[in-house]
Amino acid sequence: MSGVDMKIKALSIWQPWASLIAVGAKKYETRSWGTSYRGSLLICAAKNYYGARMCLNDPIFRAVSYCFIPGHYIDLPYGKALAIVDLIECNPVGYNIFDDLLTPRLLSAQEKLFGDFSRGRYAWKLENVRQIKPFMVKGRQGLFEIEVPEDAIPPQG
Fold first, then answer.
1. How does pLDDT run across 36-70, given as a tens digit for each residue?
2. What SS3 state is found at 53?
3. How far is CA 94 from the centre of its chain?
4. d(Cα 42, Cα 81) in Å, to the nearest integer?
5. 7-137: CATH topology
6. Positive or negative: CA dihedral 116, 112, 80, 74
7. In the chain, what are the domain boundaries?
C-alpha cells in the first residue's frame, strides 16, 4: 500500500459466523438476498451477541465451531473488522441440481451446519481469506463501504 487507507466493500456478520469465516472454516455466507458484487469483501463482526447465544445452544454447532475458534463466545471480537475475503460467486440455493446453481447435497456437513441453505436463500462463496489486525467498525445492513487503515493489513511475505 502507498500510505493511504484502502476503501473496500464490507459486510456485517453475527458471531461466531464472522470468526468462522476469518479462520477459513466457513466458505459460504448465506443470506436472504443476493448480490451482483464480486471482489474483495471486508468481514466485520457485528456488535450483537444474539447470534452467538442462539447458535451455541446447539451442542453439535458448539462442538464443531469450538474446533476452529476455541473459548467462550463472549471472548470473540464484536464490532470489529476481522478479515478480507474474495466474494467469487453468489448463487440461489436449490434442492435439485437442475433448479439452481448450488444444492445442499454438494456441501460438506460442516458447511451445512454453519449456514442456512434453505430454498430461497443465497450462498455467497468466499475464498482467499486474509486475516487483518482487527479494528473497530460501525456496521450496517447490506453491503457498505469502509476505509481499512493501512496498519490493519499485515505485510505480505
1. 999 999 999 999 876 666 676 777 887 888 888 88
2. helix
3. 21
4. 7
5. 2.30.130
6. positive
7. 7-137
